[in-house]
């Protein structure tokens, strides 16, 4: 009930926390940059013809030897770093959001059903969730990726790259949603308004989605923001390990992997710029998640 | 001994400062119980918090003086103020469940408190004093009971321990905030008698905060009536209750259900704030009224009994003691047979834990009875999970729950909540007609018609209960099951809601199963009465005959213990 805040109160809290404003700005800029990448990026990093080895390893424009065409320098292939980062972030965000949606739908669905039905079904779902929690996320993702590689013909692999990644990451994140949804459902089930609906003979699906779900949405939104950051990080990790996206369609993780080769060679921008971008994005999303938690749970204020 | 003058407590907020308490005077002499009475939001607890220094942030004492004996509390520096209060003021809280530490023995809590205030006393002397105090508060065999943990005491006994804890530092002033609200009537009257005796014997000053005028009448010497943080009326209890001057006090007294006779309606004395809402809605409610009256006659056999249960038993599994051993099942409802005559109100009374609510849930199909049959309008009513979702009784029997804060989904608009039965039972296919019917129903239950656009949290408890009643009525029920429909409400609101229920019952010939722990409320509402104790039916009968002379000793006792509004307490000659 207290989660009901007037909008003005949320805005008031926002105005008092400069950190959250800064985080929101960073996230907004990063997301806008990624979304508008084809419009604002100086070149298309997927078009191999658009860059040449002659421009390779240029430092950022503000350094000696820099070229104003390449604001943040180029990598060894002559790829413009600004474009590579914007396109990389675009891929990272698409996969992160996709995985989040996958995890949320799977987790909330199973959690609501487990809490409502109870008994053996509940026990089964929750034990599977426990097993899932015991497996490190990266291991789940590697497993799904490996199975997909084995099952699919080699020609199809590249096309399903992104869906496989989404499923792999989503599978390792659904547990949080399921547990929260289940716990909230168990609590809401004993509330009089749900009892009233049961007594009146309302269809269970309607009770779950109209009566219960809106009441458990608050904590789920918070989990979603925190998990979005995790999903982006997980994608970066997988790509860094080489099981994610290939070098010709680089995500932020792939860029970092490429940059690793230049860690000690003096061309620092190839590694550190995508890394800094990734860190800024993830931190910003996490700070906003904490802020949302504060709004939905006034006890933390 | 305690003198509060011109106390103003302010809560600064963004929308401006809110004065929870304004310009309140209060004087308590030694050996005197001073009652603070008022409805929720009157500022009773805020005054107590200001005296004890427990004001929740951002509350501040914006003006006035609090004097304890010769000491001006507010003039003292913080640490000294804190120490003075700790030594001379004690507090008794409402809920004995939460005011004792469940992980410490009674002994540890008492002895520690005594030693914290009088370190020089020594452990043995502190122990002796603690044991003596427990004995004094009516705990038998105190030396042995000292070793017990709070959960090993019953609610009333626990409140006695809390009182002992409050007295163990020999305070001059004790503030009791709703000390008996969480207790059953029988226990309440014992605890109040204990409080009175201790105050007389020890010459303590006490501020007793309560919403219950019955409690005020039973034990207090003087009373201050509060409303919206201001003093409405103050004086000797007998004068204020016997001959109230302020309009608010009069209306408050009039809305208390009487135990001695049944009135057709609660007299509602309108004051400047409480507009008579019923007449305003008379026109707008006509549509809903006509719609309800036009309900098709029940499809059943027109049995004389709208609802009947026979030999109903609901048993819950006992707690598991070991892997293969379970305690015997708890029989929450034990072989109960009851009948609700058509068009009548059956009052079901009992103390907490007597199985009243479980019976209601069994009727609604929310719990699975282990034995017995139920009939609605002559037709068998399938129990628990075997009742199909589309069973006709799901519409014909509707329930009003006790807690209006939990019975309405906070995320749905009132309009959607009220339209639910219309959609669910296919009573009104047209969305426009539904909306008109909903707003007319809102008028009928005495709410503004624009309420449909708003959310439950924008309404007070009484208004929410009206909404819940409206929702139940929109299903066009013949039977209404009301489980303590007013026990979460203030008395003046209770009077309004009960009047509304009476109106609706008479106009639409509803049959109502009215569950309550409060005999006075049941007397005002019920035609027949049934008393339950520990899951069993003790007595049933016509209401008037029952109140004239109950047959069973248990019923007689219950009736005798219910506080009545007469100031008859002989004052002990201590002071």
From TrEMBL, chain A:
Record-linked InterPro entries: BP-dependent_transpt_permease, MetI-like, MetI-like_sf
One of the GO biological process terms: transmembrane transport
Entry-linked CDD domains: TM_PBP2
Residue ranges constituting the ABC transmembrane type-1 domain according to the UniProt record: 89-289
Keywords: Cell membrane, Membrane, Transmembrane, Transmembrane helix, Transport
Membrane-topology annotation of the record: Multi-pass membrane protein
Signal peptide feature range: none
Gene3D superfamilies tied to this protein: MetI-like (1.10.3720.10)
Compartment list: Cell membrane
Residues that span the membrane, as ranges: 20-41, 91-117, 216-241, 269-292
Annotated GO CC locations: plasma membrane
Coiled coil keyword on record: no
Family: Belongs to the binding-protein-dependent transport system permease family.
Stated name of the protein: ABC transporter permease
UniProtKB/TrEMBL annotation, chain B:
Residues covered by the ABC transporter domain: 2-253, 307-559
Coiled coil: none
Subcellular location(s) per record: Cell inner membrane
Keyword ATP-binding among UniProt keywords: yes
InterPro entries to which the protein is assigned, alphabetical: AAA+_ATPase (IPR003593), ABC_Ni/Peptide_Import (IPR050388), ABC_transporter-like_ATP-bd (IPR003439), ABC_transporter-like_CS (IPR017871), Oligopep_ABC_C (IPR013563), P-loop_NTPase (IPR027417)
Membrane topology reported for the UniProt record: Peripheral membrane protein
UniProt similarity note: Belongs to the ABC transporter superfamily.
PANTHER family: D,D-DIPEPTIDE TRANSPORT ATP-BINDING PROTEIN DDPD-RELATED, OLIGOPEPTIDE TRANSPORT ATP-BINDING PROTEIN APPD
Protein name: ABC transporter ATP-binding protein
Taxonomic path: Bacteria, Pseudomonadati, Pseudomonadota, Alphaproteobacteria, Hyphomicrobiales
